[in-house]
Specification:
about 20% strand, 2 domains, Glycosyltransferase, nine-stranded mixed sheet, alpha+beta, single chain, 16 helices, about 35% helix
Length: about 600
């Protein structure tokens, strides 16, 4: 590994000078909102500098592997990000790697590999053949790298800058003519084009940007975007819109980012995790972190004097390098701040963050409740009742309730009836009923009668059709039907002592069912009525009384158990939509099942 120099500067003056030395033009020139002469946030810059140096050391150990992956698999994003990271410490006066000649060979190799693997149309693959949106991620990173190197102006990087320039010029037409897969890709491509156009103008670039923007920004009334993904797609959309606002003269886009960041305040847990049960993307069943939004909160806090956003940015700075950062390590952020030196300004006065609220986002079917360190999520907004499908791009997570008491976390509460293998309960709506929130659904399955005379065929060859559960050559649409139904209503009430009451009413058919509670690993279960479920790892059945899940001094007590027996087996039915594809809905964690049989009225308490 390249030997690191002695750290050049950690004082406020030296660090601020490092930002200014690379920035060149004033921040006010970027969007007219800020001035480079404003006080610098020395602690923030110092944190990023230290993290970037550590990140650069890791990149220097692994960049050969990045190049191999690029050449073998066509994946450009890691190589482009590695080049951006090395660039940031090379040009930053306060970095231990500032103008270190030993960086030039790795940076040159990364740039050469990216140029060699770029197709004739200017694109890379990155998991999809000749992919404009995946290329756009790398174009954004490479544009930042080029801008920093150009501003720095060192003769030693002349060849490197030429290589990056050729890559970016070549990529522009591919982005201006290519298509996308998902909603957030539109804005990502626009942001990449706006950056390229700013330096190497081409009339086709703003035309393409305007064509995408003419479709309208896909923001729901509650502040989430149409993919309802508070982390996976919002962390793409928000930076993209900020870039377009800056480079394409669309200041109206700041309002969209502001609304989304405001919505994020209500889905953020005290420990920085972001609730995503309502998402239509991959994060509906994954943990993502608030630091992904750090620079977005910081930018709008500084630009608009928003004290609440400043409080988020300051909280993340205080938590420092020890917090979880997810896909974007802390050290990768330095390049963005060097590219936008106004982000290094001191924050405005902070305002208190919301820590006591009940927030209903009707456009996502989500209620969030927070009382200090206690939080809860009530979810009734899956797409299944409307589209009757399980698919990528749909909200399908059957978890309808989650809660936290400090470190004690109930990650999921689900209801699984064994009714024609239709799968878990997914509410058709979420609405206020007096002092409770009401979730409800009615599912039906049919027995089919003989075809009416006019639809019969002598050859017996009928169309292959879908009856809602499976396909068969039965011409289902023309058959009379006898339906069986299962009706479920759940009333969720917050109690005066900070707990929750859930009243269940399941009726119209007699079927086994199981309530599945899944707790975060790391705690302990206790309760005399708990029995292990045979053949199921870390799974128990609560047959009587109450049980508790404890992490340190934090505890969630729940129950009561509801018996056991052959007519109410401890089985969670994921539904034929999953089992036919050998899929699974089993969440990771420590699971407790409370079983019963409908018709059933049951009251669960969690406190």
């Amino acid at each position: 590994m390249i030997a690191r120099r002695t750290f050049l500067a950690t004082s406020a003056t030296a660090t601020a000078a490092g930002i200014g030395a690379v920035s060149g033009r004033t921040a006010a020139a970027a969007d007219g909102a800020t001035s480079e002469q404003s006080p610098q946030d020395a602690e923030f810059i110092g944190l990023l500098t230290t993290a970037a140096d550590e990140r650069a050391a890791a990149v220097l150990d692994t960049y050969d592997g990045n190049i191999t992956e690029l050449r073998d698999l066509g994946k450009a994003r890691v190589a482009a990000r590695s080049l951006r990271t090395l660039t940031s410490v090379h040009v930053h006066a306060a970095s231990a790697y500032h103008h270190d000649g030993a960086l030039l060979v790795p940076m040159g190799k990364l740039a050469d590999a990216l140029a060699d693997e770029q197709f004739d149309d200017g694109l890379w693959d990155q998991g999809a053949v000749h992919s404009p949106p995946d290329t756009a991620f790398s174009v954004v990173d490479l544009n930042i790298a080029y801008a920093l190197l150009d501003k720095d102006g060192e003769r030693s990087t002349t060849k490197l800058r030429g290589t990056i320039e050729r890559i970016l010029r070549k990529a522009g037409p591919g982005l201006a003519n290519g298509g996308v897969h998902t909603a957030n890709h539109r804005w990502l491509v626009c942001s990449a084009l706006s950056r390229v156009h700013r330096r190497w103008p081409d009339a086709s670039y703003p035309r393409r940007i305007d064509a995408w923007l003419a479709e309208g920004i896909d923001q729901l009334p509650g502040g989430e975007y149409s993919e309802r993904s508070p982390t996976y797609s919002a962390v793409v959309t928000n930076p993209a819109l900020l870039t377009i606002a800056r480079f394409h003269a669309r200041p109206d886009l700041y309002a969209h980012v502001r609304d989304n960041l405001t919505a994020s305040l209500y889905v953020t847990e005290p420990n920085g995790e972001v609730e995503s049960v309502h998402s239509r993307r991959q994060d509906q069943a994954a943990l993502r972190q608030l630091p992904e939004f750090w620079l977005q909160y910081r930018e709008l806090a500084i630009r608009e004097g928003n004290g609440t956003f400043a409080a988020v940015a300051e909280l993340l700075r205080e938590r420092g390098a020890g917090q979880t950062f997810g896909e974007t390590p802390l050290g990768d952020r330095l390049a963005e701040v060097l590219d936008r030196p106004e982000l290094a300004r001191a924050l405005p006065a902070v305002k208190a963050l919301p820590t006591d609220f009940e927030h209903h986002d009707d456009s996502c079917g989500l209620v969030r409740v927070r009382r200090g360190e206690r939080t809860a999520s009530i979810f009734g907004g899956t797409d299944l009742p409307e589209v009757h499908a399980i698919s990528s791009g749909l909200s399908t997570n059957p978890t309808f309730f989650k809660m936290r008491k400090g470190a004690a976390i109930l990650d999921s509460l689900r209801l699984s009836p064994q009714f024609f293998s239709l799968g878990p309960f997914r509410s058709e709506d979420l609405e206020r009923r007096g002092d409770a929130w009401r979730l409800h659904a009615e599912v039906r399955a049919a027995f089919h009668q003989p075809l009416p005379r006019r639809h019969r065929r002598k050859d017996g060859l009928y169309p292959l059709t879908d009856d809602g559960r499976f396909w068969s050559a039965m011409d289902f649409p023309h058959r009379p039907k006898d339906y069986r139904a299962l009706r479920t209503e759940i009333l969720v009430r917050e109690t005066d002592d900070g707990g929750w009451d859930l009243a269940f009413d399941v009726s119209q058919s007699a079927v086994p069912l199981a309530l599945e509670l899944c707790f975060r690993r790391g705690g302990e279960l206790s309760g005399e009525g708990l029995e292990p479920v045979a053949g199921a790892h870390d799974t128990y059945q609560l047959v009587s009384g109450e049980a508790s899940y404890t992490v340190g001094d934090d505890r969630i007590t729940f129950g009561p158990g509801n018996g056991k027996g052959g007519k109410q087996p401890p089985v969670v039915e994921p539904g034929e939509r999953y089992t036919w594809m050998n899929g699974s809905l089993t969440p990771d964690g420590i699971r407790v099942l409370i079983t019963g049989r409908s018709p059933l009225t049951y009251r669960m308490t969690l406190r």
